[in-house]
């Protein structure tokens, strides 16, 4: 069940975010290349368990296939599995705008894509947003409205969101 796992406090989640940003800065300084920073959109205090790991690995497989198919050279990759959530960092040598397009396509088309969160940072560390590319904002898992607005206004109970995630993943892996 998606809800079970080691709960993370807000402090744990914020600490992981600070560490992610610091590591992104290190990669930018070391390689001077754009970065894919991949994690999942999982609401609530549990950010890691076997189901979440499987979802993450599915997104990792997709981005790896896309990079290989497009012959995008990578200079560094790091994958971590931790209670604050799995993460992957990829430094690459290619247009960050084009990679944003490719990652957004994965998020839009893959059955679990709504759970994938591919952030693209250009070589200066600026995040390339959907708005920068004149793309629609992400949709809510439950009602297809703007995800940010739904989340901010707490339109759905956590249990409803987690049940939706669990059902999406269970259906996907059962049919794979």
Automatic annotation (TrEMBL):
GO BP annotation list: prosthetic group biosynthetic process
Keyword Nucleotide-binding: no
Catalytic activity, reaction form: apo-[citrate lyase ACP] + 2'-(5''-triphospho-alpha-D-ribosyl)-3'-dephospho-CoA = holo-[citrate lyase ACP] + diphosphate
InterPro entries attached to this UniProt entry: CitX (IPR005551)
Domain of life the protein comes from: Bacteria
Molecular function in Gene Ontology: holo-citrate lyase synthase activity; lyase activity
Swiss-Prot/TrEMBL keywords: Lyase, Nucleotidyltransferase, Transferase
EC code(s) of this entry: 2.7.7.61
NCBIfam families assigned: citrate_citX
Protein name, UniProt field: citrate lyase holo-[acyl-carrier protein] synthase
Source species of the chain: Anaeromonas frigoriresistens
């Amino acid at each position: 069940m998606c809800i079970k796992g080691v709960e993370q406090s807000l402090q744990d989640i914020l600490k992981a975010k600070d560490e992610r940003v610091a590591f992104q800065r290190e990669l930018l300084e070391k390689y001077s290349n754009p970065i894919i920073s991949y994690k999942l959109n999982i609401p609530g205090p549990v950010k890691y368990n076997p189901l979440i790991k499987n979802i993450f690995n599915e997104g990792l497989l997709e981005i790896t296939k896309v990079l290989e198919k497009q012959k995008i050279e990578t200079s560094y990759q790091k994958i971590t599995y931790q209670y604050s959530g799995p993460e992957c960092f990829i430094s690459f040598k290619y247009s960050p705008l084009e990679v944003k397009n490719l990652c957004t396509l994965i998020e839009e088309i893959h059955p679990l894509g709504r759970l994938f969160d591919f952030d693209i940072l250009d070589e200066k560390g600026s995040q390339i947003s959907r708005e920068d590319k004149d793309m629609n904002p992400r949709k809510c898992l439950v009602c297809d409205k703007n995800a940010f607005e739904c989340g901010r206004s707490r339109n759905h109970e956590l249990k409803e969101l987690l049940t939706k995630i669990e059902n999406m993943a269970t259906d996907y892996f059962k049919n794979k």
